Amino acid sequence: MSESSGRFKPGDRVRVRAEDRPGHIRTPFYIRGKSGWVERVYGEFLNPESLAYGRDGLPKRPLYLVGFRQAEVWEKYETAPKDKLYIDIYEHWLEPA
Amino acid sequence: MSVDPSAKQNETTQEHGHPHPKHELSYHAKRIYAIRELLLEKGVVTREDIQAQIDYQEARSPANGARLVARAWVDPKFKARLLADPKAACAEMGIDATSLNEFVVLENSEKVRHMVVCTLCSCYPRPILGRPPDWYKSFNYRARAVNDPRGVMREFGQELGADIEVRVHDSTADIRYLVLPLRPPGTEGMSGEELAKLVTRDSMIGVVDALPALPGSRKNA
Amino acid sequence: MPRGHHDIGGTTRDAGPIDRTEHQLEDWEILADAVNQALGARGIKRTDELRRAREEMDSELYRSLSYYERWGASMENILIEKKILTREEVDRKVAEFEKKWGEP
Questions:
Q1: I need a labelling partner for A23 at 20 to 30 A (CA). Which of B21, B126, C1, C96 fits?
Q2: Are residues B45 and B154 in the same domain?
Q3: Is the ipTM, as predicted for this complex, more than 0.85?
Q4: With an 8 Å Cβ cutoff, are A29 and C3 in contact?
């Protein structure tokens, strides 16, 4: 996997766009608007949100492994302060935090 | 799995002699047979295409993943390769992972446990582990794995202390994840083959640890 | 926009215990799986499209169908969308099978 592309690098703080739009979306509802950090850069992939409609998936989108602290994602999370949640998120769903 | 039922049916000229398992088929199940037949008639796919997919999937099972894990436990250099380039490590073990877009192995430790879910769908490393179990595809697992992973683990019989970090991976994209469970204590001296028996499917999804060493198999403990 | 019926991470509706019963796949389920993969191997559809079709299904239907029933329904819709087959053709073929298999 090529790790050169993309505007974010590991350690960058990012916020998931709170955007709410129709169509095939790979960013789960529960994580929109939440902040975390880039754990890993996976490289560029065809955009599934375009492929889902029979289109070509271009341009490719950088994909990141984004980490979140569970306590910051859920209002009620059991007392385990180290627990984390990791989600694969495409760049167009992220903004600098 | 038996071969494609209609293939049998055609070999026996008429419907005579073909088994009648279809009596209790649901509306949607019948439509699968209809779609298959139409696709064959139209030449969109062939019987061989379909049979090849059945054979491919039947050849996949958690035993593949267990071999990877057991080897990683006994061979630190292999473990390093498995973590750095999982697809190449699979090829080395004769496991075909080429159909995976990206494959990532998550290593558990005394202090960290990983657990994998796909909340939006039911994505799963099928080329390595075969088809996912029903519970993995259930709405309850998909809903709870992300905000109640410890509760899920408890249901699977595992209680983790708060000092252990639980990392849930929601696999929303093209990356497929396999958990490399912790090697159970007391397994020193066990062979790779014996160790592989301790590596359950569920431990590679991450809802539980690998099985404890069987009392009889402890060698140098 | 309400959240999609498939987008259930963290929802309270599904917060109950996990049913860990496993069932042996039936032939039609194995067939649904294999036909789907064969279409993919031929480049006729992508999983992304089937996922979208499942997301566009009626929500009550999505909840009530079994896993491979959802696969079948989404596969049918995508094949119709791509004009590879029609709903009527599938209906006719089902009727033909029912007659042949001795059903009403």
A1: B126
A2: no
A3: yes
A4: yes
